[in-house]
Amino acid sequence: xxxxxxxxxxxxxxxxxxxxxxxxxxxxxxxxxxxxxxxxxxxxxxxxxxxxxxxxxxxxxxxxxxxxxxxxxxxxxxxxxxxxxxxxxxxxxxxxxxxxxxxxxxxxxxxxxxxxxxxxxxxxxxxxxxxxxxxxxxxxxxxxxxxxxxxxxxxxxxxxxxxxxxxxxxxxxxxxxxxxxxxxxxxxxxxxxxxxxxxxxxxxxxxxxxxxxxxxxxxxxxxxxxxxxxxxxxxxxxxxxxxxxxxxxxxxxxxxxxxxxxxxxxxxxxxxxxxxxxxxxxxxxxxxxxxxxxxx
Length: 296
Description:
The protein has helices at 2-13, 27-32, 281-289, and strands spanning 24-25, 46-59, 65-69, 82-87, 105-116, 119-133, 142-143, 153-155, 161-163, 176-189, 195-200, 207-211, 232-247, 250-258, 265-267. With 296 residues, it is mainly beta. It has two domains: 14-133, CATH 2.40.50.140; 142-267, CATH 2.40.50.140. The strands form two sheets. Strands 2-3-4-6-5 form a five-stranded mixed barrel. It has a five-stranded mixed β-barrel with strand order 10-11-12-14-13. It is globular, with a radius of gyration of 22 Å.
């Protein structure tokens, strides 16, 4: 019996929880070490110190949430570098983040790692602390294809619902990404009927879901005014969020691209003569090339 105990003990030790006072973690460390469904191995653990990142969005409706992205850690630049921070609504002053703004670098003490609708978050508690510095540059969005944050597919049976086929989008959770050359092909889908499909202009098999509920310029229907079926975009930028849960008689498990302001939706314009989604001197060169063309 003693021999069996000695063999099993090391294996059990590998899965022993880390003591709260020992947890000093970066966003990358919290996010990168996850199970197959994306939950952090530190779920429900107290983190004594998180080195944090720059605030890329502050969601103000309802409970304030901060989306924070680490731009200093080289490991986190291409994935596993973002996290959402929110307060414990039952015990913490709802105005705790009033002085925090987009562009602030924030770090945290004594926060708890939680999983909420599929998203790894930091929860601010009564004894939590926050440090900040202002005027930091926001990260450039990571260019991805629609299938990198692929739309879910419908599955019948038990459970019945919409599910992603893989977790390739998990590493972009709470990070800024950008899809290019896409069009809106369908609206009024998703658990809250506020999602729309962005399909690659050249490949109908490439698509992702987007939503504008974090966009302060959405209309009364929950969409940005630019979002109409058939609308083409040079690019759409947003924050990747996961949603899992049971709602409206379906099980849901999908990733969505959340726009945050009008500038996230880049439309084609007649002045973009070379089709690169920018109006600059290269367009003037095209214009000059055809100046007075056909007048002789």
